[in-house]
Amino acid sequence: MVRIVYLGKFADWAGRDEEEFEAPLDWEGLAQRVEPRIAEELRGDRAHISLDGVVLADKQALSAKDGSEVALLPPVSGG
Amino acid sequence: MARISLAAPVEARVLDKGLSVGEAQAAFSNINRLSGGIASFLGKVRDDGETQALELTHYAPLTEPAIRELAQEALSRFALDGVLVWHRIGVMTRGQPIVLVMAAAPHRRAAFDAVDFLMDHLKSASWLWKREKRGGTWEWIEPRAEDRLDLSRWT
């Protein structure tokens, strides 16, 4: 299984902080399984994906294996 | 003697409880006692008459390592002796500190610039997610155009 972690507003949209998807998981599989508006925002350039603590330069190159953690990162704001 | 010990020359922390500003300033000044100057910025939850609370979320595998990397970048980019970045997460209310940034340098300009650089990056290019509670409703905040313009000054 691949653990999916929702951050920020994605957690509100998904109605949970995390869940598990079947491994292996690629970009298409992820985009099909998450809430449509999360998938839509992930297609934009201000949302990001990390795989096991590394932010992907190319989201579409996602390739998560059994035991991996994929975090879905909406646009950030701190300070 | 300062009661807390800081890493030098780069001190970066994500804190889930109160941020002791005075202690951090005393300790930072102590470890950089031979620096010509220290610039310090403290960001707080403002009272705009509407915001009841503010909450910051982080993602542990990314947030603190990236903030440490950012502080390291400031150290190499400006002529600094030391740098400190402490950022709160969790729920904060009016008047409470959110972020403390300090830079120690032989000369003031590098210290001012480093703090400015760090704050611009913390506002819109760090792994933090902010929401504010107004009229009983939580709302996610995204950087304003002004914040993005501030950030673009450094590229």
Structural class, judged by helices and strands of chain B? Answer: alpha+beta
Percentage of helical residues of chain B?
Answer: 25-40%
Shape of chain B: globular
Q: Mind telling me the CATH class of chain B?
A: Alpha Beta
Which CATH architecture of chain B would you pick? Alpha-Beta Complex
Whole-number tally of structural domains of chain B: 1
- pLDDT averaged over residues of chain B: 95
Number of beta-strand segments of chain A: 7
Tally of DSSP helical segments of chain A: 3
- Average per-residue pLDDT of chain A, rounded, comes to 96
Largest sheet report of chain B: 4 strands, mixed
CATH superfamily membership of chain A, which one?
A: Beta-grasp domain
Approximately what portion of the residues of chain B adopt beta-strand conformation?
25-35%
Number of helices of chain B: 4
Q: How much helical structure, as a percent, in the residues of chain A?
A: 25-40%
Instruction: Please trace the helix and strand order of chain B, writing H or E for each element.
Output: EHEEHEEEHEEH
InterPro entries (chain A): Beta-grasp_dom_sf, Mopterin_synth/thiamin_S_b, ThiS/MoaD-like
Pfam families (chain A): ThiS (PF02597)
Organism (chain A): Parapontixanthobacter aurantiacus
Protein name (chain A): MoaD/ThiS family protein
Describe it.
The complex is a heterodimer of chains A (79) and B (155). The model of chain A has no long low-confidence stretch (mean pLDDT 96). The relative contact order of chain A is 0.29. Chain A is 27% helix and 30% strand. Chain A has helices at 9-14, 27-33, 36-43, and strands at 2-6, 18-21, 25-26, 48-51, 54-55, 63-64, 69-73. Chain A has 79 residues and is of the alpha+beta class. The N and C termini of chain A lie far apart (35 Å). Chain A is globular and about 35 Å long. Chain A has one domain (2-73): Beta-grasp domain (Ubiquitin-like (UB roll)). The longest helix of chain A is centred in the middle third of the chain and has 8 residues, at 36-43. Chain B has helices at residues 21-31, 63-77, 108-124, 145-152; strands at residues 10-15, 37-44, 51-58, 82-88, 90-92, 97-105, 128-134, 137-141. Chain B has 155 residues and is α+β, with helices and mostly antiparallel strands. In chain B, strand 7 (128-134) and strand 8 form a beta hairpin. In chain B, the strands form two sheets. A four-stranded mixed beta sheet of chain B has the order 1-4-6-2, sandwiched between helices. Chain B is built from four helices and eight strands, in the order E-H-E-E-H-E-E-E-H-E-E-H. Chain B has one domain (10-147): Molybdopterin biosynthesis MoaE subunit (Aldehyde Oxidoreductase, domain 3, Alpha-Beta Complex), CATH 3.90.1170. In chain B, helix 2 packs antiparallel against helix 3 and helix 3 (108-124) packs across helix 4. The chains are: A alpha+beta (79), B alpha+beta (155). The A-B interface holds A 5, 7-9, 12, 50, 52-53, 55, 69, 71, 73-79 and B 43, 56-57, 59, 61-62, 87, 98-99, 119, 122-131, 140-143, 147. Chain B: InterPro entries: MoaE_sf (IPR036563), Mopterin_biosynth_MoaE (IPR003448). Chain B: This is Molybdopterin synthase catalytic subunit. Chain B: Belongs to the MoaE family. Chain B: Keywords: Molybdenum cofactor biosynthesis.
